[in-house]
Amino acid sequence: MATVVFITAHSAAMLGLARVLSGIAVGAVLSAGMAAVTDLAPDDEKKLASLIASTSMVAGAAVGPLLTGVLSQTLPYPTLTVFVLQFVLLLVAALLVMRMPLPRRSATVDGPKQRLLRLPSASRANRRELLVSLAVFAPAITATGFVLSLGPSLLAQLLGTDNRLMSGGLIFVLFAAATGIQFAVRRLPVVTLFNLGAALTVAGMAALICAVATTSVPLLLAAAVLSGCGQGASQLGGLSTLAAVVPSARLGEANAALTAGGYLLAGTLPVADGYLSDAAGLTAGTTVFGIVIAVLAALGALTAITTPYRQPSAP
Known about the structure:
Elements: H1 2-8, H2 12-39, H3 46-74, H4 78-98, H5 127-159, H6 164-184, H7 190-214, H8 217-245, H9 248-280, H10 282-306
């Protein structure tokens, strides 16, 4: 539905509605889709399934903007072409999902009776793992959101170009880094993934602050790579933890809670930064919020180190 609204949009209000609908769709697909991938994996390959689910998410986020940049820069009717292609891809995806051999769920799960609408969570026995995962993942995905909110326009300004491929290329670099690091560190213990993700997030925010202060393109690219790697490592750690300890009947909901918590912080802080930057200047706003995210990431790593929780073994 969101894609159809994008195709037919002729006002800012319709574009806003399309963004809301696409956000709802992304939230539903991420939580249920990643749980479905884990469901289809044998018991001894749950962490591998988490790797596949997590990298599929960020790989798609890398290829999509790059492809969109190429199409919108080279083809006529760029917005129409992009969303028509997206509509076709969604139809293909829907047909594939209909053929997935997923187990059927009963009407109830190991907790309160299912309701159509309720806040996602995990059972009491798994809540500690969810909170630890969220403490590291939320600052990391907020860091990538922060880079993405500033990066494309800042890069275009620094390079003196309005070429949309440049913006798509920056986003591609960020999420390609988030994809690649997960394969590189997949055998590390979860607590190491959390610590690594937090450290890379802190480094990414330091690079972004310096990039804005010095108007440096190499530092901006470094911020994108470091932040993407930070999200990738922390995301893999969180999904692996949940997949290992949460029962299948509640895994989709636990994934939804992790995703929703991360995106809640990732949505609010960059908006707040926009208001601060308008009032105090871009450099001051970036510095303040970069430090906030770095501190939150460090606290998340400390939580992962000091909180006792069940950690999955390496595949």
